[in-house]
Amino acid sequence: MTVIANFLIVVTILVGLLFTVVAVIGVLRLPDVYTRAHAASKSATLGVLSILVGVFLHFWWNKDHISIQLLLAIAFLFITSPIGGHLMGRAAYLSGVKPTKLTVGDDLAEVVKKAKQSKPE
Amino acid sequence: MAFQLILNVFIAVVWMFVSGSASASTFIIGYLIGLILIMMTRRFFKERLYIARLWAAFKLTLLFFKELTLSNISVLRVVLQPKMTIQPMIFALPTDLEHDWEITLLSSLITLTPGTIVLHVSDDQRTLYIHAIDVDDVDEAVDSIKHTFEKAIKEVSRP
Questions:
Q1: Chain centroid to CA B19: how far?
Q2: Which residue of chain B comes nearest to A16, CA vs CA?
Q3: B107 and A99: CB-CB below 8 Å?
């Protein structure tokens, strides 16, 4: 039983580590703010999440201690991280950061241009 | 929904008084009895049975975890492929959700699904502007957002 429990703990923490590393590589390799936001907001969420789940299971099964704080941390991570990704992307776009050359279509550009025309600075 | 829940807790408390014991197991028994009573009298309530909405919320959570895993695998594929062949695109997606919390929930779900991030919500809250990491996925993404997420959220919010 202990072997299975420890195996599961090690697997969740390793998966979390893998996704965190992927997030870092993504931030380094991808060409612009928006694609980097993809890597940062998704992989980082699941990465940190799996590590927290692994720690929770370790303290539960090996130390007989159910940590409510870890569960709360998981819930808060879920609520905050997509909002963080969205706000960074939106702030970048509205302050005029150009998307990469690879971008094929942009429906938002006209909307922003129209809003600027109706409200000149 | 809140009214039915409060009524159910109230019936459980009344059951605790009736049986004269204030333990957790008495509360649970009273709660189950209240649930059966509410099911029997459900045509007097204007809204659906609250259990149905809780079940819809549970299904939405499961869907969310599935999409989160899929999105991470897709980011992993994009990041680790040797050549950058992605074609990002910003597209508009009309939505017919009405309440603020529904739109917030939908944007959070979109942000955590494969290859899409919400950049902007239009002022009249009828359109979401979404950044997709690869143009090949756009149609698929629109389809999955329209037919799974919006439907699931509507299922939860339907009275």
A1: 38
A2: B72
A3: no
CB nearest B79 (choices: A25, A45, A108) = A25
Selected residue with higher pLDDT from B140 and B68: B68
B69-94: average pLDDT: 80
- Kindly state the average pLDDT of the residues A16-22: 89
Q: Does B94 touch chain A (CB under 8 A)?
A: no
Return d(Cα B116, Cα B100) in angstroms, integer: 20
Report how far apart the first and last C-alpha atoms of chain B are (Å, whole number): 8
Which of these, B86, B103, B91, B87, lies nearest to B130 by C-alpha position?
B91
Q: How far is CA A44 from the centre of its chain?
A: 4
pTM reported for the whole predicted model: 0.77
C-alpha A41/C-alpha B112 separation (Å) is 8
Structure tokens at A78: 């879920």
Torsion-angle region of B115 (φ positive above 0: left; ψ -120 to 50: alpha; else: beta): left
Tokens of A62: 């090996």
Looking at B58-67, B83-92, B97-106, which range is the least confident one? B83-92
Q: Checking phi first, is residue B130 left (phi over 0); if not, alpha (psi -120 to 50) or beta? A: beta
ipTM of the modeled complex? 0.74
Q: What is the mean pLDDT of residues A72-81?
A: 87
Which residues in A lie closer than 8 A to residue B103 (C-beta atoms)? none
Spatial distance between the Cα atoms of A36 and A83, rounded to a whole number of angstroms:
15
Nearest CA in chain A to B106: A82
CA distances, B56 to each of A43, A76, B1, B101, B159 (Å) = 27, 22, 13, 16, 12
Whether residue A30 and residue B107 make contact (CB cut-off 8 A), yes or no, is: no
